Fold this sequence. Notes:
Elements: E1 2-5, H1 30-43, H2 56-67, E2 77-80, E3 87-99, E4 105-114, E5 118-121, H3 123-134, E6 137-138, H4 140-155, E7 160-168, H5 169-172, E8 183-188, H6 191-194, H7 196-212
Parallel strand pairs: 3-6
Antiparallel strand pairs: 1-3, 2-5, 3-4, 4-7, 7-8
Amino acid sequence: MTNALYSPTPGGSAALPQQASHPALEPVDAERVADLIGQLLAALGEDPTREGLASTPARVAAFYGDFLSPDPSAATCFTETHLSGQLVVVGSMSLWSLCEHHMLPMNLQVAAGYLPDGKVVGLSKFGRIAQLHAGRLQVQERFTRQVAEEITAVVGSTDVAVAVRGTHLCMSMRGVRMEGARTDTVQAGGLFETDPVLSQQFLTLAASQWKAA
Length: 213
């Protein structure tokens, strides 16, 4: 879902962001992962050679290899010299990551907003940025910051905000086992920090998309 509205207050931050970094991930050793999963099944009292489990270690290894190897892509930007004064929000982006504390899945609902100034970013890029940073062992707080920093580098402006609502299986199915618990994080820069009207419009749109999901 994409929304565009609002004329921002003049005088936004002129500071340009630093290029976002991509920490290199080592390739997944599929053979070793499969062997370790077989050992885990045995330690859990299962027979990893029995029907139904014989191919499970290889399947799990293939999953980790695919999930932890997201494909980065270059940003596609389009010149729009007369376009300014809009709040663009790309939301309803739902994706999965893995909690690095328990290696359990977390579902992340992402909304990203920015203020175009002379160019617009291809909408699919926002989803690819989110997937890139979700495809690793993560915590929601760091994920939110990384997505915001990446978008900031792409648009060339600090006028960027990212809001994330997370459902964490490490909280839903273990520990306190609260299935309805949700975690919200927001990273805001530029006018999204200093203009309360702009900030509220962004948060309102992000929350409405979470409710619709």
